[in-house]
Task: structure prediction
Amino acid sequence: MITLTKIRNLKLKNKLLLFFLIIFAPLILISKILIFILSQKLDEIAPPLSTFYTLITLDFLFFLPAFVGLAYLLSRAVTKPLEKFTHILDNSKEGDYSIRLTYNAKDEVGTFARHFDAFMTRIEKHHCLQNDENQKTIEAQDALKAAEKERHKLLIQLQKSQKMEAIGTLAGGIAHDFNNILSSIFGYAQLAQLSGDNPQKLNNHMNQILKGAQRAADLVKQILTFSRGAENEKRPLKLHLVVKEALKLLRSSIPSTIEMVTQVETTAMVNADPSQMHQMIINLCTNAYNAMVTSGGTLTVSLITVDQIQPEHQSKDYSRPGPFLKLTVKDTGHGMNQETMKKAFEPYFTTQKEGRGIGLGLALVRTIIEDHKGLSYIKSIAGCGTSFFVYLPVVTKNDSSNSLTEIDASLKSGKETIMIVDDEPDILALIEELLNKFGYSVHPFDNGESALNAYQEGKINFDMVITDMTMPRMTGIALAEAILSINKQIPIILCSGYNETITRSHVEAIGVQAFLEKPLDTYQLLNTMRMLLL
Result:
């Protein structure tokens, strides 16, 4: 039995065929029968032309409703659903993949709607999968950032741990050097006391005391360069100077059975952090002399410039162009076999006896080299010694000389009013006497708070401030920032014995015009003052 639902679900061509059979065909048949009957009667009472017009009119009256019905059917079957689809699409939001036409008829339009819905379902699933992949990518990137932060944190801890190990290794040699320096200072000071009646001898003894004090200052500077926190401030660096400083610090720690040979043939620069370069050289040399500590031998350190990396030293993952600084640290110790060489750069791997090292030296060396975009290579033969090769890219930028560090041999006096701040009474008295001797009006303060109060009162018109860095209650940095907030033009000299949290760049950034390291060189202090007061 034919129902309305079944008719609605028919395909469009079947609907048209059914409509033709049910409505259109009977109308045509009826019209033709009527036309035939009427034509028989009309021929008897009307002329042929009138008969023709009558037939046309009857065809029009019967065919017009048929065409109107056909148009209505097409509108219901096609136009209305398309209008509904257009309305749904117009009201959808951009990026909305949940749109569905939900037209369940089994005709062509319904088939189109189902295909569209299936297509949108696939797009929606793909979009969800893509969102999941994007989320995983974001999570992976966040994890990589967190891992990089953790790696940097662990690297700093590794450096500190290894520095403590190295300081322990160097402690004997450092103590030996200090004792020699102190012996010289004590001896010449006692001789100076006995030579009061001979000005020439007294002057010679005082010069020897000054030389000893300068040697002690240089030794402290070397230790601080090695032990201070990892600032990782890369800048154009003359590596040959770092090599010489590191070897000078090592020399007294190395047994006399080991000969040290230095072959520095270049003054080229690399973009590097001085502290890390110092530590790299110390680690390599310490590792080398540990291999010869019982048998003795020769430790050779060479530094040259090369245009390219030796083919046998090249790595397939390293493609940086030359020129390079090539640092070689060679020993004549017991050497390593292939198995040991493979593990040499692994953290906590060591061939030393228990208590003589924790195996972080070479691991840290490799990390430092990679951080400076360099390349390392190790060559060793069991029983014949080991050679470490380090390649670092050369930079051509010249060192920018700081005019404030240039010392003028002719010391000039002045009449300006100077504030000096230091919590050490002996240093405060020394600077006050020195500046008074050169004509300055000096106002000493033993803490930052009293100095700041005096400046804020405005009773004294200060021309310059010289302050220590580390003081109780108020640091030199805090004092400088407070004074500069009042007067940005006043020259300030900041002095420090050691402070690992403050760098020279930080000091310059807040407006301090000069930074001097203790122990103060009086000539450098006086010349710096004149340069800033001009």
